[in-house]
Amino acid sequence: MKSIFNLNNQNLSIDGKIIAGLDKLVSVHRNLIWEQSKKFGLSPIQIQLLLFMNYHKAEYTTVSYLAKEFQVTKPTISDAVKMLFQKELVVKIENSTDARSYAMQLTAEGIAIVQETELFTRSLQYALQFVNETSKQEVWELLSKILFQLTQMDVISVNRMCFSCQFYSQNGQGHYCNLLFKSLANHEIRMDCEEHVVKVI
Ligand code: SF4
């Protein structure tokens, strides 16, 4: 395999250009979130934790789950949430069956920060307005396949996509959700589904 950072290789390979493009988007995303975090004296991971906890169910807001979700160690998450507790942006939801374990929930102040920061993606959303619907659907089909493949390879530790869901089945050349009782077109495959249940293989 050749380095895609060597421009001679990159420019002769569509794979190299896709990876370089994704790398550039990661840098853009990192910079945009960094700008928001500086405003509130929080780190980028703390902003991401607030965003994630605000839009996901309590069972996903434990230190263990968040460590898997963000692919960092549990001590890294514990350190990050310590400041969120100190700033009274989150509170604990005690676990009645295990005193050492807890989930977290945002306070009104935490929700206010989410509302102030969550549109940091606006420039990406704006740029997408200039891309036609068919191209966007093709891009999502490609991304969903790459993300699923990376999950299969254990490079991504958690995903809540259709392909890894117990309710997903193939429907001829297409897809079917056995929970919603409907066929799913490629562009309807979900990235992050609230009803997702991990398929046991
Ligand atoms: S429940 Fe959600 S993740 Fe699972 S197959 Fe249906 S739409 Fe996809």
Structure characterization notes:
This protein is mainly alpha-helical and 201 residues long. It folds into two domains: 14-122, Orthogonal Bundle (Arc Repressor Mutant, subunit A); 131-188, no CATH class. Helices cover 49% and strands 10% of the residues. It has eight helices and five strands, in the order H-H-H-H-H-E-E-H-H-H-E-E-E. The chain has helices at residues 7-10, 14-40, 44-54, 63-69, 74-86, 108-117, 122-128, 133-152, and strands at residues 90-94, 102-106, 168-171, 174-177, 182-184. Strands 3-4-5 form a three-stranded antiparallel β-sheet, with no helix packed on it. Strands 1-2 form a two-stranded antiparallel ribbon. Strand 4 and strand 5 form a beta hairpin. Helix 3 packs across helix 6 and helix 4 packs across helix 5 (74-86). The mean pLDDT is 94. The structure holds iron/sulfur cluster. Residues 162, 165, 167-168, 177, 179-180, 190, 193, 195-196 line the site of iron/sulfur cluster.
Q: Any idea what the CATH architecture of the largest domain is?
A: Orthogonal Bundle
Q: What is the structural class?
A: mainly alpha
Work out the strand percent.
Answer: 5-15%
- Output the strand order for the largest sheet: 3-4-5
Total strand segments: 5
Can you tell me the CATH class of the largest domain? Mainly Alpha
Oligomer: single chain
Instruction: Kindly identify the CATH topology of the largest domain.
Output: Arc Repressor Mutant, subunit A
Mean pLDDT: 94
Radius of gyration from CA coordinates: 19 Å
Major sheet details: 3 strands, antiparallel
| The CATH H-level homologous superfamily of the largest domain | Winged helix-like DNA-binding domain superfamily/Winged helix DNA-binding domain
How many domains, as an integer?
2
Low-confidence stretches: none
Helix content: 40-55%
Number of helical stretches of at least 4 residues: 8
Bound molecules: iron/sulfur cluster
Euclidean distance between termini CA atoms: 31 Å
List the helices and strands in order: HHHHHEEHHHEEE
The geometry reads as: globular
